[in-house]
Hints:
The chain has helices at residues 6-12, 59-75, and strands at residues 24-29, 33-39, 84-95, 104-115, 118-127, 130-142. The protein is α+β, with helices and mostly antiparallel strands and 145 residues long. The chain has one domain: Thiol Ester Dehydrase, Chain A (Roll). Strands 1-2-4-5-6-3 form a six-stranded antiparallel sheet, with helices on one face. The longest helix has 17 residues, at 59-75.
Amino acid sequence: MSLLSTKQIMDLIPHRHPFLLIDTIEELEPGVRAVGKKCVSYNEPFFAGHFPNEPVMPGVLIIEAMAQAGAAAILSKPENQGKTAYFAGISQAKFKKKVVPGDVLTLELEIMKEKGPIGIGRGTAKVDGKLAASAELTFAIGSGE
Length: 145
């Protein structure tokens, strides 16, 4: 059973359909780490054009899904509730495996460093335990307004 449902995730982070890219949170340590899941469906709007004859989830959206899991971790800290986590940088992004309809992405992000409103997390996206993507993400916490 999941720790947080889609509805509970929407109470925590500001993303909404069609840009909410995580379905559940399986593990959560506020301010430390989160593990989320994304069930990749053929009905995802991006598959219409990426690519019509060979649907592949865009790498940037895999990174975004990873970041949303990280946002759940950082925004679940009491002092950050109601705020927004913005991208401030992406580094060391690597893509190892195609993500296609029917895959279940497991997204893990661990907060490595935090100083004031800025922080760095290291994330992975896996399918069936195999690495699909990894990256180091820098974030900035804003007011959410």
